[in-house]
Amino acid sequence: MAVSPTTMAAVRASGAVPKAEYLLNVEGIRKEFPGVLALDDVSFRLKRGTVHALMGENGAGKSTLMKILAGIYVPDQGEVFLKGLSIRLKSPLDALENGIAMIHQELNLMPFMTVAENIWIRREPKNMFGFVDHGKMFEMTADLFNRLNIALDPEAQVRDLSVANRQMVEIAKAVSYESDVLIMDEPTSALTEREVAHLFEIIRSLRSQGIGIVYITHKMNELFEIADEFSVFRDGRYIGTHASTDVTRDDIIKMMVGREITQMFPKETVPIGDVVLSVKDLSLKNVFSGVSFDVRAGEILGIAGLVGSGRSNVAETIFGVTPATSGSIAINGKPVAIASPNQAIQHGMAFITEDRKETGCLLILDVLENMQIAVLQDRFVKFGFVAEKEISAACKVMSEKLRVKTPNLQERVENLSGGNQQKVLIGRWLLTNPKILILDEPTRGIDVGAKAEIHRLVSELAKQGVAVIMISSEMPEVLGMSDRIMVMHEGRVTGFLDREEATQVKVMELASK
Amino acid sequence: MTSEQATAKAPAPTTSKRGRRLPPEVSILLVLIGIALIYEILGWIFVGQSFLMNQQRLTIIILQVSVIGIIAVGVTQVIITGGIDLSSGSVVGMTAMIAASFAQASTWARPVYPGLTDLPFIVPLIVGLGIGLLAGVVNGALIAQTKIPPFIATLGMMVSARGVAKWYTKGSPVSGLTDQFNFIGTGIWPVVVFLVVAFIFHIALRYTRYGKFTYAIGANVQAARVSGINVERHLIKVYAIAGVLAGLAGIVTAARAQTAQSGMGVTYELDAIAAAVIGGTSLTGGVGRITGTVIGAIILGVMISGFTFLRVDAYYQEIIKGVIIVAAVVVDVYRQKKRKV
Amino acid sequence: MTSEQATAKAPAPTTSKRGRRLPPEVSILLVLIGIALIYEILGWIFVGQSFLMNQQRLTIIILQVSVIGIIAVGVTQVIITGGIDLSSGSVVGMTAMIAASFAQASTWARPVYPGLTDLPFIVPLIVGLGIGLLAGVVNGALIAQTKIPPFIATLGMMVSARGVAKWYTKGSPVSGLTDQFNFIGTGIWPVVVFLVVAFIFHIALRYTRYGKFTYAIGANVQAARVSGINVERHLIKVYAIAGVLAGLAGIVTAARAQTAQSGMGVTYELDAIAAAVIGGTSLTGGVGRITGTVIGAIILGVMISGFTFLRVDAYYQEIIKGVIIVAAVVVDVYRQKKRKV
Amino acid sequence: ANIGVSMAQFDDNFLTVLRNGMQDYAKTLDGVTLQVEDAQNDVAKQQSQIQNFIASKVDAIIVNPVDTDATAAMSKLATAAGIPLVYVNREPVNVNELPAKQAFVASNEVESGTLETKEVCKLLKGKGKIVVMMGELSNQAARQRTKDIHDVIATDECKGLTIVEEQTANWSRTQGADLMTNWLSAGLEFDAVISNNDEMAIGAIQALKAAGRKMDSVVIAGVDATQDALAAMAAGDLDVTVFQNAAGQGKGSVDAALKLAKGEKVEAKVYIPFELVTPDNLSKYQSKN
Ligand SMILES: Nc1ncnc2c1ncn2[C@@H]1O[C@H](COP(=O)(O)OP(=O)(O)OP(=O)(O)O)[C@@H](O)[C@H]1O
Ligand SMILES: Nc1ncnc2c1ncn2[C@@H]1O[C@H](COP(=O)(O)OP(=O)(O)OP(=O)(O)O)[C@@H](O)[C@H]1O
Ligand SMILES: [Mg+2]
Ligand SMILES: [Mg+2]
Predict the structure, then answer these.
(1) Is residue A62 within 6 Å of ligand 1 at its C-beta?
(2) Which domain covers residue A159, as residue numbers?
(3) Model-level pTM?
(4) How much is the ipTM here?
(5) Test site for ligand 1: of A63, A183, A232, A417, most ligand atoms within 8 A of the Cβ
(6) Which of B1, B162, B262, D81 sits between 20 and 30 A of B174, alpha carbons compared?
(7) How does pLDDT run across A253-276, given as a tens digit for each residue?
């Protein structure tokens, strides 16, 4: 017999929480989407006061399971037990009232509302007349931020925040529910090391209060640092659960992908050619200024920095998304004016943006349409007609090369898992055979196997003489892949490091200078 | 690993340096003042009269858009949720007809319900608001439950409600209304009703949960849903309110004309939407304020009065009206953009 | 290195058993067939006649919506980009008036341009398409360059173009058109024009770069821009096409009526949008097909003919029309959803 | 003098002739300017226009009422402002209790449909099936003319007429043609088409011709005597229409307004009769309207 969510919520509110071995467990869950069996007879158990990591390749079904727990999807089969009692969660409200809060993989904020309004939506404090008490709400937010050591203005509008700061708002919001179970679906994919460390402080303190935390990540080091236990999923199936102290990194990878991956960052040393892209004194008013650097053929220039240091803005400006207010760009020695992405593409550039939902995916269109859209600018088109056969074949090859997990090329991209969406975008730009490739957080949300594959591809392109700019907040990635690292801080370049001299400490020094 | 960095003091909030934004109405208020001043100057040049220093004109400016304004208050809320309401003009016609049929005086030769004449004002009022509510709930329920686009649901209602208005008396007007009923349409009462309605919903949008939910749904319906908001129920509420306000507008229209006609309110929905959008409400949802809508409605009123004042040829009035609607929004968009960068 | 592992088998595609999805038009085609069959059955019961087995009726069904259909082909493309075009009905009126004024016969007593009578058909054709193009380009340029919402830009054009139509001859109709001009409006020529236009843009949307870009912009305009699409230029193209088609529709309307009147095309924009949306085009952009729109237009035509066929009282027709528009979309949304899950 | 004019509708062929008649006449007068507004068939808009005229202190107001039931409120507004008011073309509901300084120049709408239907009755020799095309259902003239048809066939001479179908084509020629085609496809049989206006009648003619029906086998009747209608009558297609002296009404209303503005007395009611137009007296009307 399943307990109704309202009954459970009432029990929870009364404080009479039933004792049970597991805070939360699910048994035999099955969830099918049209064409995809996302979860097949999956079980999962979460103990009180632990951090339980969920691991698995892109599309393994992690987010789907968590969305079931958050009341967004209803499973086709199987049961959810909350504190030992079987329960049917029919809406997000059911989950929240029963003490399950979730930080979603994709940001879910209201851009035109303030930080405080976003956090307390539906739970706004009221004054004696029944009106929303904004003063109290800002106070509550300030308190919450104090407690979590987050420095954000509660009255700021969310649309003015960087992606990282938005992520921090999401985290604060989830914590504010004071739930028993806190699900975090790749919370660190948009964060740099400093915020990650900060987040871990928060997690530890929550854990010590007896809260159970489900933590999804593709970053191996995070697993060892924060998780007590971990479970591995593969292709919608449950593989196993272990204590994180028991295993090595390679063991986990083997469990995840069903094979061994030996080298994580296969950067090959290749001969470096002439300067391809030269940026001089580039500035964008009020955002960054005086940015100068060269990138050579075959070179990978990493750009490191803290969140909000202006790395993404530099990339957007070079690509013509937000044209520079001053400074110059030269390609192969010739000065060029780039006022739009269209022109940038004509100069052989490609740009994989950091926010795949906002500026990347055509969510409601299919994989094929997403992949082909950039290359149609100059290839695969005759007399205005698209060469369907050729382009499909090219996209098919590319998607196989990138191991995109999709039933077919006609699948809508919004139905793909986050990591697979990222792969589709990478495919979109690789098809254009760029001379200059700009990557902004290219492996965000990508699983280890695919990450290695993308790194191999980038390295391969460099070998063919492509000039690569790679912005990354993942220190091992920058250090492992770059020939040279440019470090930025608050809109200025604070220094360059060669591959040999670069270490984490040196980068961090420059990044906070 | 990296946790030793966690002690690094949190960076100062980056936003403060930008300061608070000016409320967006300021920009549109400037547009209004600009238009009024242009008329004032042209008035002295071409007509030798003041446009603004004329009590009668200031009244009629608002009076003639008060019905549009009442609707626009509801439509603004619908648009903030990311929806649209095309039915309001027709609902005005439908409620005007039905409400008026319960407001006929016994002195009138052909009452619709001969047995029901000289009823107190409360009867047609309740009937009118009820009819509006019904239309709004149907709109909202269709949109929330069947997930059809608001454009279609309210387009259907637009067509059907107009049909009901014509069918109700087979097209005949409903006249001979009681003085009690007509009272609400006399003098500046329509203006009072408009401003009271605007004030109530200004407060509701800014200071109540109802308002927060409305903005949240429009800004990001997915986020609203995962935050536990019952989106369906809330949408029904918002459309119901828009319906009730359209019903109220119908009553005021009939009272003003002292008759109800099945063609009443045709294309009012477009004027109401224009008022909202000129006032800064975004058709993509999540953004908008009642104060802006009130100013938007007044801009429309100033425009109409100004045409007559300057004796603009009627043939040119429409052409210019279209240009002004576009120009007002262009100026507003441009000003907002400039302030942002 | 990891690449040697790339052979690891891809996840078992559980999809193959379902195969490719049915194109979405199938669902709306079923709605059309459903409505037609209902009429057929009701016909036998109440009128004792077949609804469908009647050559004349099958013609008029499409004929009466061919003008709406021509507009709807353009409107569909606009909606796919995530925009809307409210001006098409007024552009029909404006082009009808202006084109017709270049198509008057010398036998007519009061031509608009006494010096310009009995011109070959090509002259009014080019004039009409040119006027439509102009209106479309203005719409597109406003939307692309000033970033005002399409709803407002085209609402302004709707008001202004109607004003131009009335102003052009001070409201008088333009009659006495040449036989050459009227020819395009006789017999099933309007149907032919409609279907040819539909075919051309069906191909353009599905198989050309123009089409791919149109969908991409509607799906995510920012991503489209970053992918190198010149969004501004493309939007102008799309609105220009919609304008030209509205111009063409104006010519056909005038030729059909053998006269042009300033009120021509009023509310056609709503019927065109309804046809597009009933046919599966999504008002949020990125989704839609011309085949669907054609079916949507035919549904409207079937509905009108069916009313007359079943002798539905004029007063009920509108009420029912609203219900059918909504019902058609509800059924379609429901069927699509069911197929998906 | 400065006269404000509020017309019910600009895109109506008949009212356009009336409006142009008014304006042409005003041009011949010294110092008379007309400010003509389009009420777009909206009672409230018309009322606002009157109020705007009052605010602009015009010398007189001419109203072509959208809804003749709404004139009481308008009369009150004008009286309060002390500005003369003239109703034109449509008879106001308060015609018998018009205040001082108000008048009306109108035709009796009852006549148009009656003249039209009686002539059809005569042509059919009092026996036959008719179809009726109605104007916009919310429009008063449409309702009145349709009612006239019913009234006439209720009389003894025309008892033999039966209405087999009655639908709206919204005053429009194309909708008239579509409606006729739909009727024909349903196999409807009839001897006459009585239309609320000429436009729909012409549409019906076009559809009938396209279907190959002989035009002398069916009687077609409209109202308005527009240029197109007279041309259709000359071609032998249209059998009956009704002329209303639009220009005359326009001129009369301007005269009345000017006199009232000067403080002179005018007759409170001026009726300008409808006139039946048939092929016999066609030539008399071809230069008018
Ligand atoms: N709404 C949906 N409709 C159809 N298929 C879906 C839907 N949501 C998820 N899927 C599919 O279900 C599978 C599991 O997706 P899920 O998002 O749970 O993966 P994940 O493990 O979270 O991956 P990632 O690490 O990339 O986030 C994928 O194959 C995905 O394509
Ligand atoms: N649209 C915007 N409006 C206002 N401020 C913005 C906007 N976009 C970026 N910023 C600000 O510009 C600064 C630089 O942001 P940018 O995204 O380039 O940094 P980044 O180093 O790439 O960091 P991240 O990891 O967050 O992407 C940040 O302070 C950010 O808040
Ligand atoms: Mg996921
Ligand atoms: Mg960045």
Answers:
(1) yes
(2) 5-257
(3) 0.91
(4) 0.90
(5) A417
(6) D81
(7) 888 877 666 556 667 788 888 999
